[in-house]
Amino acid sequence: MPRKDWIYVIDDAKMPEGGMVPVYPLGINILMARVNGKVYALEGRCAHMGCPLFNGMLEGTVLTCPCHDWRFNIQTGEFLDASELRLKVYQTRTEDGKLFVCLGQTEGL
Amino acid sequence: MNVESRKKALRYFFDKVVGPLGYKFTPDGDLMDFLLEQEVMLERKHGIPFCPCQPLSHDRLRDMKIVCPCIPFHRKHFDAIRRCWCGLFVHKDVTNPDSLPQIPLSEVGLE
Amino acid sequence: MKKVSMYTLSTCPWCRKTKKFFTEHNIPFDFIDYDLADEATQKRIMQELDANGANGFPFVRIDEEVIVGYNPGRYAKLMGIGGAA
Q1: Among A81, A98, B82, C47, which residue has the least CB neighbours within 10 Å?
Q2: Over the stretch C30-69, which tens digit does the pLDDT of each residue have?
């Protein structure tokens, strides 16, 4: 059975509404964002030239990269000007006030 | 970072962007080398690798649409002429980039 | 002879080819490298580009005719030169 690998990244209380926080579980650069109460986790570097996205601007569910204004939908990771390009999106869940992201799946025993 | 290293870095970044869009670097090695070098110099001057063949207007909204690779912002135009304006990128099936004229948007019949 | 003028970029290989074309055909021309021009000149050129629907360089004017993009065939035709490059 495949088993999802969930990893703790941040306390839920530290994620402000409309805010973004970079986290680095196992060294992976992930951007956490909360919009309308829901938490999203996506690749923390721009698909264009790898700029860190946490300094970008979040308007609703649209994230604009601070370097060259590339815009992404944080729900899907999709680049708004060419849907072939996207940021990786991670599943999230909350447990006992702690936020976890799913980094992938491993084959269980 | 020296010019050659930065050219390599830009190639690495741009390759990942243009592939999914159906484009590749021009097979004209001299042209590619020249254009990448110009972009490195533009990046040194402005902090951003702008297209070497399009004008900077100093209006951020407009200028961000000519940051290389600018294909996403000129998709219909470039798909029609099978190359980007400066010619750094061509459609994946293009083998002879010299056969692709530089046709302005106003003449490709999209407007 | 027809009057040839052009707006170009010092960073653009197609602009260099355009200048080379006219030089090789011994046709005198005026040019301004947009990126090396002062702010007021850039603003004026940008307005002219926009007015002509030009998205990029080279921007060549042969008498009243405007050619956007490197197009040796059209240069030759307008200049009455045989065997376009």
Answers
A1: C47
A2: 999 999 999 999 999 999 999 999 999 999 999 999 999 9
